[in-house]
Amino acid sequence: MAKIEKRKVWMALIMVPPILFLIGWGPSEVLHLMVVFATFLGLREYYRLVLPQSKWIEHFAGIGLGLMLSLFLSFGDSRELSPFLFLVLILLSIFFMVTSKDLASTISKISITLFGILYVGFLLAYVSLIRNLADGRLWVLFLVATIWAGDISALLSGSFLGKHKLYPKISPNKTVEGLGGAIVGSIIIAFLFAWVFLPYLEKGHCLFLAIGLGILGQFGDFTESMLKRSAQVKDSGTLIPGHGGMLDRLDSFLFSAPFLHYSLLYLFKEAP
Questions:
Q1: Is 165 helix (H, G, I), strand (E, B) or coil?
Q2: Which of 10, 89, 176, 254 is 20–30 Å from 115 (CA)?
Q3: Residue 67's Cα: distance from chain center in Å?
Q4: Model confidence over 46-71: pLDDT tens digits?
Q5: Backbone region of residue 234 per phi and psi (left: phi > 0; alpha: psi in -120 to 50; beta: other values)
Q6: Segment 4-23, tens digit of pLDDT
Q7: What does 110-130 look like in DSSP terms, one character per residue?
Q8: What is the secondary structure of 7-39 as a DSSP string?
């Protein structure tokens, strides 16, 4: 256990600085490409989890359409999303009607594949949409800092104070104390970040964003735990030594990024 924890720390020290540098000082196109690449890795892990017996071509269909959606949202016009999603659904339906042998299998695979496209490709693309807003690079850093603070605080408070299980059927290690720690940690870092980089953010708005991100970050973790539980695996993959797969690193952002995006549009009345 100690060896694994040490490896986690070293991998974090190696990976975090360049990621923060690219987000904070790189052009928006670099972040968009990072999101698209992370989407590819996340979708690949998702389909291996939920459709382990399917042919590679069926995985490829979901990954390909998910990447198209991610590219469209990151580099295109998000206001034209509805016709694009309609096209994705049509292409997906045609593909599985041609490749599947029975109706029940077709409906099941379409549902599972479409969920993956939306769960990873659609939700993660909101990181790119945040980057496209005014002060977008700062808001992406705000998102990352707040979510990471929540995750670390949840781990520490759950380890040292955790006594009351939150939902043991899905994630036996998650506790009420861990959730509370995530919210407190998110609030502290959100206020510190806003004080230094976002002085125009009102205290009430900062508190609202921090609590929402803290809760939704943990909800994202629970959602991925449910997928892993159904697949009877501990991690979504082995991509990052000591940290599991890409989905294990992205799960906290999948619901929190859309929340932050729409909250900012509402708070600052910015057109999408």
A1: strand
A2: 176
A3: 15
A4: 998 888 777 777 788 889 889 988 99
A5: alpha
A6: 456 666 666 777 888 888 88
A7: HHHHHHHIIIIIIHHTHHHHH
A8: HHHHHHHHHHHHHHHHHHHS-HHHHHHHHHHHH
